[in-house]
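Section handout 9: paired folding examples.
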Amino acid sequence: MHHVYLIEAENNGKRYIGYTTDLKQRLADHNRHKNVSTRRELEWKLIYCETYVNKMDALGREKFLKSGSGWRFLKKQLQHYLEQTNDQSPSVINSPSVPLGVDIIVQNTKGKILLTKRADDGSWSLPGGWVEATETADEAVKRELYEETGLSVTAFKLADVCVRQTGTVHMTYVATQVSGDLRGSDESTDVQYISFSDVEKWHADHQERIRRALGL
C-alpha cells in the first residue's frame, strides 16, 4: 500500500508531509534523524495519514497536500485537533504563493548527466522537486538530490531560472562537488548517468534547461 502522511514535531509543532510504502519504518527513520528535512527536530508523531492502492494516486495527493489548497483541506479535516493544540496557522506547511521548483545537474568525470527515470511516465528528468515553505531553494535542492539519488551536494551554483506557461518558477543548479552512494527512490524506476544525446524521452522542459545551464 502507498501512504501519504503528516507528522508533527513534539518540541515546536513543525510539520512535514511525505510519502512512503512502510509507514512504521518511515516514522522510525524520521525519529532516527535519517531524513534531511526532519533531522533537526527531536521527535516526530503521526497526526494524519491517507492510504492508496495506486502509487501515482498517492504521489499526486502528496503534491496537493503540500499546496495552499491542501493545507486548507487539512485545516478543515483536522479542525478539532488544531483547536485542541491552539494552532490554526497555515504557515508551517503552506507552500509559497508562486510554486517554486528546483532541479540540479550532476555530471560524472565523463560528462554524463545524472538522471532519474520517472515512475509516472517513463521520462528522464533531473533530480529535483518543489521547495517547501519551511526551507530555502538551496536547502530544497540538497534535500531533493539526497532523497532521489542518495548523493549529498557540498558545492553548487545557480545556472538558470525560468517561468513556465503555468506560472511556476523553476531554478536549475549545477553541482560542482557531490559525495555518497548512488541509489534510487520510490518516485523513480531507475537512476543513472546518461549522455545528453542518448536520452530519448525527456521530462517537460528539462532538455532545454540543461542546454541553457551547460551552454550546449
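Moving on to protein 2 of 2.
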Amino acid sequence: MSISNRNLSIEPITQQVLALIRSGHLAADGKLPTERVLAEQFDVSRRSVRLALDSLEEQGLVWRKQGKGTFAGQPADPTGDLAARIAGETNALQVMEARLCIEPELAGLCAKRMQPEELARLRGLAQRQFEANGPEAIELWDGAFHRLIAQCARNRPLLTAFALLDKIRTNPEWIRLRARARSEPSLEVSHCEHVTIIEAIAAGDPELARIAMRDHLTTRFEAMRLELDPADSAWDTVPLDLDT
C-alpha cells in the first residue's frame, strides 16, 4: 500500500484519536488509552491504531515513552514551570512580540537544515490547518506547523525559548483572543503566508524565510490587537521593527 493510500485508510482513526485528545477526558498527564483499548473502542485492528498513532507522532501531536504508553502533545519541558510563573506577568501581544524576535530566525535556520521528509510534513500540516473545522482544530494544526519549524531549526537554545512561549500561549483567554482574531478571509491569508514560508524554506533561502515568517506573525499580531479594547494595557504594544 502506498503512503498516500495508507494515510487515507487511517484518517478516520486519526480523527477519532484527535477528538479524544480534544475532549478533555484524558488523565492529567495526557496519557492515551492503550492500543488494544483504542482498537476495541473504534472497532478497528490494533495495527490500524498503531499506524494512526505513528502518523500523529510524526506530526508532533503525540509522543511515546517505551514501557509507559502514548501521550498527547509533547514531552514535558522544564520550561513549563517557568512559563506558568511568567504567564501572569505578560500579555498576548508581548508574547507575539517575543515570537517576532525568535521565529523568523528559526525559519531562517530551517532553510538551511530542514530535510525533504520534514518539508513534506510541514506542507501536510499547513494543509490540515487550512482544512480544519472549528477553532480547536485550527489551533492544533497551527501550533504543530510552527512547532515543527522550531524543531527542525536544530538549535536547542532557540527551541527552548520557543517552547517557553508555546507553553505560555496555552492561556485559555489568549486562545479565545486568537480565535476571535480569525475569520474565513484571514484564514486564507494565513494559509498563503504559511505556503510562502514553506517555499522560502524549500528554496534554501534563509533571508526570504525570515521575512516570510516575520510578515506572517506581524499580520497575526495586528489582527489580535484589533480584538483588544483600547483601554487594555496590551493595546499600546506595537510590533518591534527589527530592520531599523
